[in-house]
Design a protein that fits this description.
The complex is a heterodimer of chains A (109) and B (162). With 109 residues, chain A is mainly alpha-helical. Chain A has 3 helices and no strands. In chain A, α2 runs antiparallel to α3. In chain B, α2 packs antiparallel against α4 and α4 packs antiparallel against α5. Classes of the chains: A mainly alpha (109), B mainly alpha (162).
Chain lengths: 109, 162
């Protein structure tokens, strides 16, 4: 019996919820699109840049000297890393600025 | 007879072992670094999601360890070939084994260091933001260990055309 009572009370709750005026739900993505593009771009760069630069420079620039081409590939990997660190720094700064602006707008309203 | 002494049939075995060691050990290190720092990042991200972008740096660095081993493996593989066209000497076999082991085991060491530093560094960054520069510096010094192995392997690899 107790279980049935609970069920009824649950149902009444859900009815109340339905009768409530429709609230606008928050549908903005949790991760903003430009962050996802950033991560996708860096993933692609990490996969393509080092090995691509190795095969690109092996016969065109270094004339078959694979040691220099290998060193170039390692340098390219580190360039991607540096780019990521710089972007991560600027990302956090721009996030903080946006948050501050939103805060100001809210206060203005 | 003289040629057979320098290029025995089993010489390519050592070169192949070098490729396999470079890839396996380097990727073990990179996997450990990614997994261990990933634990820390997911721990931090539940409390401070805005720190994810900065906390991902150890993961990118572990990826670079794997790129080092990949470069050396591609280099060694470029120097190898089937016997009738290419007489692969025993010296080249041992040298390629040395290349692979040097880049693989230093990659393992660097990945291990990156994993532990990344995990704890990211967790401390959540509480104290000033630790970030220190964390990145420690990560760079850990990653340079792998770079040293790569440099030694590249220099060793030039000896094959002596």
């Amino acid at each position: 019996m107790a279980a049935r009572k609970n069920l009824q009370s649950d149902m009444s709750f859900s009815k109340e919820d339905d009768s409530r005026p429709m609230e606008k739900s928050n549908i903005t993505p949790v991760v903003p699109a430009h962050v996802i593009y950033n991560l996708l771009g860096f993933t692609l760069a990490m996969v393509v840049c080092p090995i691509g630069s190795y095969f690109l420079t092996l016969n065109t620039i270094f004339g078959g000297n694979s040691t220099y081409a290998g060193a170039t590939a390692a340098i390219m990997a580190n360039v991607v890393l540096m780019g990521y660190v710089i972007v991560a720094f600027r990302e956090d700064k721009s996030d903080a600025l946006e948050a501050a602006e939103k805060e100001r707008e809210r206060k203005g309203q | 007879m003289d040629k057979l002494d320098y290029t025995p049939k089993f010489a390519p075995f050592f070169g192949m072992a070098g490729i396999a060691f470079a890839m396996t050990f380097g990727c073990i290190g990179a996997a450990y670094g990614t997994a261990k720092s990933g634990i820390g990042i997911s721990g931090v991200a539940t409390f401070r999601p805005d720190l994810i972008m900065k906390s991902l740096i150890p993961v990118v660095m572990s990826g670079i360890i794997a790129v080092y081993s990949l470069v050396i493996s591609v280099l060694i593989a470029g120097d190898m070939g089937p016997p009738p066209q290419l007489n692969y000497s025993l010296f080249n076999g041992f040298m390629h084994l040395g290349c692979g082991l040097s880049v693989g085991l230093t990659g393992l060491a660097a990945g291990y260091a990156i994993g532990i530093v990344g995990d704890m560094g990211v967790r401390s960054y959540m509480k104290q933001s000033r630790i970030f520069v220190g964390m990145v510096l420690i990560l760079i010094f850990a990653e340079v260990l792998g770079l040293y192995g790569l440099i030694v392997a590249l220099i060793l690899n030039t000896k094959s055309r002596g």
